[in-house]
Structures are given as structure tokens and as C-alpha cells.
């Protein structure tokens, strides 16, 4: 077979370019320390790398959510630990105030201290991490609780459903006693008296026929039309109402949850009403017992009016509320452990995934050095051979 000179030149250039391309590819790998610099380098490897990187990104998101969850829950747990210390002090005050060994003046001082404890618990109920409220359910941008007024009812025939609203201001407990029996909003006037200084002095007033608002200084109670009231005869068997501090839950009814796995979520906030109680703004009624804020409000009312028996009647419910807070704290601790353990597991899996990405993309420096040296040697050999071929002409054979 006859080989033309043009074929020799073409083959020589082809081999030269192929060898040079190989050297340039290996030089690129040496520079980047990557064996996969473009999809064309290894299409199947590039596809696998994209899948692994996508999976790693998902794992990183879950890992970040676990870290965020742990921070939220740790902060909330720390706040409830402080709340527990406050409630321990409240329990001691209640036990003391329930005995008749203390004077009305001493009970008044206890009431002032209890107000301070309530305010501290109110601050805890509005605990924030950054700008987010931890006890407001999934409404984390707004506070969980707001201060308001509530009423303590000392009349077995009445419930909070009979109270339409409590309005005004009352820096100290306002006690109201009905002096006449009858029906609120009925055809007859009803006389009553109220005290703003713990029962030391009293002022009388009249609830006019057809009216439902009992005004007591700067505060007032509006009762439902048709509510039956009983005259107080001095034995405590009549209708006694106490206007005292209260806290209204204005957060959401569902917790905020984040994804910590493909089919797993974790609640990172708490619905404050299930921890601290308070009143429901939608109905104006207290949440179900045990209700810490409400029972503490009742105790304030009884302490500031020198009512030992009233304080004693609150202790059992308060204890239940205290235990409820401890249970919520334990639940938060369990969720925090879940976040920490899940983060550890995800971090391990993500590290292995990143290692797989490295195996697919990264070059072996030692092997690459050997391959580059071989490629350069081959290129130099082909270059010398090609140079010799290109110098051939007819005179070489004459």
C-alpha cells in the first residue's frame, strides 16, 4: 500500500495535537486538583456529582434547622427554669398567706411581692431569641402576652361567663360587694360598695335599673344581663368581686415547626396559653385550669384584701399549674435532645456525602504527577518525531 506524504503529515499532526491535549488536560487537573473540571471530562461522574451535591445541600439545610431548633428550645428551657424558681417563691408566699398567723398588713406586703413575681413571669412568657417570641406559637413576630385586668369571683353561683368585660385601671385590688340581691340589668336599682385599699375604707354606689356596668373608682366590671347577684351579709356568703391584674394571651394556637428530615418536623416554639394560662382575647374568658396567671391573680386579690381562706383555696390549683409548667419544660428538653441528636446524625451523613463528592471530583495528586510526567515525555517524543518527519524532502533520497 502506498502512503502519501500528506497522510504522514496528517497522522503526525493528529498524534501531536492529541498528545498536547492530554498534557493540557493534566496540567489543568494539576492546577485545580480536580479530575472533573467540566461535564465532558466524565459525563456519568458529573451527573453523580450533581446528585451528591444536591443531597448535601438538603442535608445542610436540615442540619441548620436542627441548630436553629436547639437554640430556640434551649432558650425557652432556660426561661422556664427561671420561671420555676419564681414559682417556688410564689408557693412559699401562698403557704404563708394561707395561715392566719399573719396580719392583714403582712398579707398586703406578700401581695405586693406576688405582683412582682407575676410581672417577672410575664417577662418570661414574652421571652425572645433575637426578634422572635418563643411562647407565641407560630406568631413569632408578635408578643405572646399583654397586661390587662381580670376578675376574681367569690360567689359559687357565678362564673366567668357572667362577666362581659373588665375595664379601666386598678394598681391595687378593687373589692366589690353587692349590698342588695337582684338581677343585673333588671327593673330595680342595686346598691353595692367597693374598696380600693384592701377593705379599710368603702364607698357606696348604685347600679341603676337596666344598667350592667358596676363602676368602682377608675375600674369597672360589666356583667351579663340577667346575672343574679346576692347581698353580702358580712359572712362572705354574698357576691364578692375583685378586680386585679391579669394577662391576655395574644399569640397563636399552633406551634412553629421546621423540617429536620425528609419526613420529619420539630416544633421549636410553644403555645404560651398551655404553659402560663391567662385569658383568651377571643372570648374574654380564662383558659382552662390549671391556669397559672389566673390563679396567681386570684391570690393577689385575696392577699391584698386580707383573705387567708381565699389564698388557701388557690393552693391546689396553683400546684397543678406549677407541675404543668415543669411538664412543658421537660417536653422542651426532649425536643432539644431530638434536635441535637438529629444534627449529629445528619452531620455524619453529610460528611460522608461530601467525601463521596471529593472522590468523584478530586484528583489523586501522586497519580496525577506520574501521569503528567508520562504525558510530557510522550509529547516530547512525538514532537521530535514529527519535527523529523516534517524535515523530510526529496533531496534526502538523492
TrEMBL record:
What InterPro entries does this protein's entry cite? Flagell_FlgL, Flagellin, Flagellin_N
Q: Which Pfam families match?
A: Flagellin_N (PF00669)
Could you tell me the superkingdom of the organism this chain comes from?
Bacteria
GO MF: structural molecule activity
Q: Name one GO biological process term.
A: bacterial-type flagellum-dependent cell motility
Where would I find the Flagellin N-terminal domain in this sequence? 3-138
Q: Give the UniProt entry's GO cellular component terms.
A: bacterial-type flagellum hook
- NCBIfam families reported in the protein's UniProt record: flagell_flgL (TIGR02550)
What PANTHER family does its record include? FLAGELLAR HOOK-ASSOCIATED PROTEIN 3, FLAGELLIN
Q: What protein name does the entry list? A: Flagellin N-terminal domain-containing protein
Amino acid at each position: 500500500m502506498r502512503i502519501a506524504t500528506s497522510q504522514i503529515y496528517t497522522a503526525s499532526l493528529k498524534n501531536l495535537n492529541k498528545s498536547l491535549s492530554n498534557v493540557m488536560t493534566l496540567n489543568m487537573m494539576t492546577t485545580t486538583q480536580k479530575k472533573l473540571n467540566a461535564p465532558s471530562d466524565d459525563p456519568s461522574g458529573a451527573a453523580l456529582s450533581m446528585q451528591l451535591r444536591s443531597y448535601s445541600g438538603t442535608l445542610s439545610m436540615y442540619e441548620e434547622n436542627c441548630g436553629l431548633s436547639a437554640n430556640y428550645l434551649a432558650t425557652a428551657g432556660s426561661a422556664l427554669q427561671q420561671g420555676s424558681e419564681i414559682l417556688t417563691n410564689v408557693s412559699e408566699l401562698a403557704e404563708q398567706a394561707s395561715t392566719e398567723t399573719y396580719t392583714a398588713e403582712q398579707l398586703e406586703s406578700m401581695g405586693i411581692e406576688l405582683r412582682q413575681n407575676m410581672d417577672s413571669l410575664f417577662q418570661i412568657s414574652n421571652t425572645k431569641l433575637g426578634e422572635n417570641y418563643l411562647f407565641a406559637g407560630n406568631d413569632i413576630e408578635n408578643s405572646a402576652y399583654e397586661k390587662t385586668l381580670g376578675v376574681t369571683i367569690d360567689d359559687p353561683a357565678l362564673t366567668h361567663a357572667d362577666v362581659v368585660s373588665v375595664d379601666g385601671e386598678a394598681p391595687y385590688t378593687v373589692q366589690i360587694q353587692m349590698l342588695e340581691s337582684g338581677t343585673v340589668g333588671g327593673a330595680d336599682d342595686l346598691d353595692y360598695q367597693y374598696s380600693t385599699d384592701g377593705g379599710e375604707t368603702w364607698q357606696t354606689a348604685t347600679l341603676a335599673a337596666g344598667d350592667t356596668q358596676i363602676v368602682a373608682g377608675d375600674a369597672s366590671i360589666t356583667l351579663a344581663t340577667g346575672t343574679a347577684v346576692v347581698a353580702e351579709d358580712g359572712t362572705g356568703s354574698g357576691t364578692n368581686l375583685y378586680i386585679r391584674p391579669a394577662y391576655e394571651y395574644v399569640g397563636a394556637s399552633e406551634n412553629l415547626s421546621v423540617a429536620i428530615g425528609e419526613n420529619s418536623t420539630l416544633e421549636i416554639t410553644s403555645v404560651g396559653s398551655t404553659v402560663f394560662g391567662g385569658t383568651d382575647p377571643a372570648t374574654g374568658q380564662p383558659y382552662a385550669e390549671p391556669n397559672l396567671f389566673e390563679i396567681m391573680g386570684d391570690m393577689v386579690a385575696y392577699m391584698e384584701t386580707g383573705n387567708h381562706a381565699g389564698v388557701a383555696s388557690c393552693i391546689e390549683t396553683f400546684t397543678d399549674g406549677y407541675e404543668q409548667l415543669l411538664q412543658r419544660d421537660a417536653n422542651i428538653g426532649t425536643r432539644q435532645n431530638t434536635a441535637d441528636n438529629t444534627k449529629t446524625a445528619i452531620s455524619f451523613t453529610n460528611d460522608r456525602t461530601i467525601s463521596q463528592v471529593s472522590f468523584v471530583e478530586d484528583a489523586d495528586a501522586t497519580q496525577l504527577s506520574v501521569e503528567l510526567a508520562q504525558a510530557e515525555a510522550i509529547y516530547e517524543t512525538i514532537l521530535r518525531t514529527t519535527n523529523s518527519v516534517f524535515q523530510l524532502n526529496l533531496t534526502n533520497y538523492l
